Amino acid sequence: MDITAMDKGTISGPSQDARKEERRRAILDAAEMLFLEQGFAKVSLATIIRRSGGSLATAYELFGSKHGLLRAVIERDKCERQAEFDELVEHTESAAEILRSLTRRILEIVMQPRQAAMMRIVIAESISDPEFARGFYREIHLGRVEHLAQIFGGWNADGRARFDDPEAAAELYLDMVVGDAELEALIGDAMRRGGESLTARMDWRLDIFIDHFKVK
């Protein structure tokens, strides 16, 4: 065995991985900006690569297609949000306060113009490409549900809540908070009833959720 070659491989491996990850981030950053600036349909992979640098071959290797790249942009955002939630869970004792803080943060994120624009892209592409819609549901929506259900299960175990079905409760919470917030972000004031704010509606719903599942 050539020990010198093995040593070189050991040394160069992490560097190659780091360069690949850097290229991946650059492509994702460029794709997200261009999708938001020009719309998904008007942006080609070649245009993205011209902005990010690198090669089309690398883009196809990493993402497979433009839809794969869009899924990766959304997945990155989901992972960042989950990491933020995990930090909140780790540093907050009260499960009820975790849910209140999480709800406020979700509303802040969903109501951002960038987020609404990305939602419109996802909706449009889901209508035109059912396979993309199924992938989004499996990888993004069900991923969120599973992650939250694991947290809820942990609260059951340590006596901070009573979720008879943590997965169903997680889906209920996300439908209650994310679904309504996304709808208001898309259609605006038409969602408001009698001047009631989205935050006030969410506080009322969350109180019922917390009381029903005995979240402490």
Automatic annotation (TrEMBL):
- What's the source species for this entry? Sphingomonas cavernae
* UniProt region (Disordered), positions on chain: 1-20
HTH tetR-type domain ranges (all copies): 21-81
- DNA bind region: 44-63
Q: Which GO terms describe its molecular function?
A: DNA-binding transcription factor activity; transcription cis-regulatory region binding
| Any Pfam family | TetR_C_7
Top-level taxon of the source organism: Bacteria
Keywords (A to Z) from UniProt:
DNA-binding
- In its UniProt entry, what is this protein called? TetR/AcrR family transcriptional regulator
Question: Does the UniProt entry include the keyword DNA-binding?
Answer: yes
Tell me which Gene3D superfamilies the record gives: Homeodomain-like, Tetracycline Repressor, domain 2
InterPro entries listed in its UniProt record: Homeodomain-like_sf, HTH-type_TetR-like_transc_reg, HTH_TetR, Tet_transcr_reg_TetR-rel_C_sf, TetR_C_Proteobacteria
